[in-house]
Amino acid sequence: MIRLLDETTVLVIAAGEVVERPLSVVKELVENALDAGATRVTVSVSQGGLATIEVSDDGTGIAPNELRLAFARHATSKLGVASDLERIATLGFRGEGLASIAAVARVRLISRTSENEVGYAVEAHGSDVSDPEAVAAPIGTRVVVNDLFANVPVRREYVRAPAAEFARISAFLAMLSLGYPSVAFSLSHDGRAAFVFAPGTALEERLAHVFGPAQSRALLALDVGAPAAEAVRVRGYVSTPGIDRADRRMQLLFVNGRLLRSTLVAGAWSAGYATFALANRQAFGVLFVDLPPDHVDPNVHPTKSDVRLRYPETVHDAVRRAIAATLARDASGRMRTALSFAPPGRTAEGEQTMPAFSWQTAAPNGHAASPGAEAEREPRGSGLRVLAQLDATYLLATDGEALVLVDQHAAHERIAFEAIAQRARAGTPAQEPLLLPYTIELDASDAARFEASRAALMAAGLDAEPFGERTYRIVATPAGYGARAFDLRGYLADLGDEIAGLDARERVWASLACHSVVRAGDALEPAEMSALLERLVRCENPMHCPHGRPTIVRIEPGDIARMFKRV
Ligand code: ADP
Ligand code: MG
Fold this sequence. Notes:
- By secondary structure, the protein is an alpha+beta fold.
- The protein is built from 17 helices and 23 strands.
- It has helices at residues 7-18, 22-35, 67-70, 97-104, 153-158, 162-178, 204-211, 213-217, 263-273, 312-338, 371-377, 408-426, 444-459, 488-494, 504-515, 526-537, 557-563, and strands at residues 40-46, 52-57, 106-112, 119-125, 128-129, 133-135, 140-146, 184-189, 192-197, 219-221, 233-239, 251-255, 258-260, 285-290, 296-297, 308-309, 385-390, 394-398, 403-407, 431-441, 463-466, 471-478, 552-555.
- The strands form five sheets. Strands 1, 2, 3, 4, 5, 6, 7, 8 and 9 form a nine-stranded mixed β-sheet that branches.
- Helix 1 packs across helix 4, helix 2 (22-35) runs parallel beside helix 6 (162-178) and helix 12 packs across helix 15 (504-515).
- The radius of gyration is 30 Å and the shape is elongated.
- The N and C termini lie far apart (85 Å).
- Residues 340-382 have low confidence and may be disordered.
- Adenosine-5'-diphosphate is lined by residues 28, 32-33, 36, 57, 59-62, 70, 75-78, 92-99, 141.
């Protein structure tokens, strides 16, 4: 028998979409406070929110004659007509937050606007809302939620232990506070303060709370470029390469003030981190993406935790570029530190014969400055001296102060990767025509891999003609192999897809680079060692190989002093 459900059941079902656990209540109430222009939001919960959740703000308040309406479903002051949905500038807009909470808990709401000398309180439970009654109250709104899910035993069961529920609330509120630095936030649990963030203070304290003190010191402020023509603005902080995590959980994202999860932006994040990342490691940080309201549709998810973007590629690109540019700037900065030269005055006469480095660093636009311009700025006669090759694997060098260790394979890989990528992108691959072309027959899986990477390989200088089924005639190879033969089979065997963040073409080039360079165990001539160092410092991202491993390690005099127990 088909029946219409009674009103209470309908309410509880609808509330299920919005109020999943105590955190959902906190989220709805805090969003309301922020929408009301609060400068102070105070949250206190007991028993993980299952006993009480209380949220107070100093926002505009609700007029007494609207108090009851606020609890009706689809009652909102934030939307007028349907077309307003196309440019939502508030966190709430569906008018179902308060109604949903009242459907699954007992709610007392006290509110006072600046026009009134006193506040008014209403009690709401299910679809019953009491008449407002005058009470003493400061301007703003206070909502007290008791007995959450008392009438929905199934939900109550599903909710975890109070400590776990509180941890969710605490993490959420601290993260949200990053998007509202001018608002004070405080949180307490069972009467004990969890955190108090003063308004308008530097973001550092909040970042340290969210990411942990050590991790937050690794955060780099994003370079804020001029907003693109499409009016995308990207601000925020990203972790410096080398300090990262196994998962993406700490890649926080705000789009127009809304804390979200977005696979699109996660992809952009990886693309920007690309050559800086170790395989399977993720950067962390927080991004604030600001767009015109009509470029974002937040009305696609029941808890509003994802949005639909009108121009996803534009946003993807803006995020990727902001991250890549910031990390490139940082890498060249750290390269300077890693290879910081002795001040000119301290350079001894006899050392003028040291290999002189012509410095090239990434200019703010990401392109290398011309060597000539750089040479003028950089004092001459400073240099890094190669001392030895260790274990046929590492170069040992010094700037007169610190010891510098370079992994010869990782360093050469970085150099080769950037050279290949740059020439391939410019359409001018370095190619070596073979005097004696040869044919090679591949097995089915190698042939498939080869076909998949062929365009990128051709762009990098390989010229191979199909010569019967699964047989190819190699006419030219990428230049730079010198005496080393280009080993197509070995290359294909290694061509994995496990390099985090590189696109398909870049992966091919990274594998190519890996196969065209000196290996650990190759003995190098002194001139080769100097050339390697010189070319490494000219790279855009000299500190890591394309797979993300470090190329350079610097051992400071202080480190050495500690080894000798001088300090
Ligand atoms: P929504 O936020 O989607 O509008 P809610 O059910 O959460 O729906 O709130 C209904 C209305 O109640 C809001 O549109 C707003 O006018 C008012 N309101 C709720 N909370 C507050 C608050 N803390 N301060 C001022 N007004 C509020
Ligand atoms: Mg709301």
